[in-house]
Amino acid sequence: MSRHACPGKEGILRCHPDLAGRDLHSGTLTRESREEQARAGMDALSSAEASRVARLNEEYKRRFGFPFVICARATDKTRILRELSERCQNARAAEMARGIEEVKKICRLRLQGLVLSDAPNKL
Fold this sequence. Notes:
The protein has 6 helices and no strands. By secondary structure, it is mainly α.
């Protein structure tokens, strides 16, 4: 089943690209995702960090059936790496709920950015 074939909340999670993955390096991420991951330092991982992220991303997807999702805009590389490692140990239901909460954070921050960027008198 493709990552886009699953409806509902799991489908929302499956639509997310791997953190610091192929899409970031090939330039196929959305501008917003690319900027958020770069701001968190995910575009400048050392070779060891990149290998660790790739391994943990695969472990996470194997365990839960969807990619690891975190609001990169609200964190940094150190915390992302720690959370990716720690969250691989959670129950699937807990991770689905956590992933959806992270999607909500991403959406809320992006919408706030759009609204504020369109405000006539930016503060």
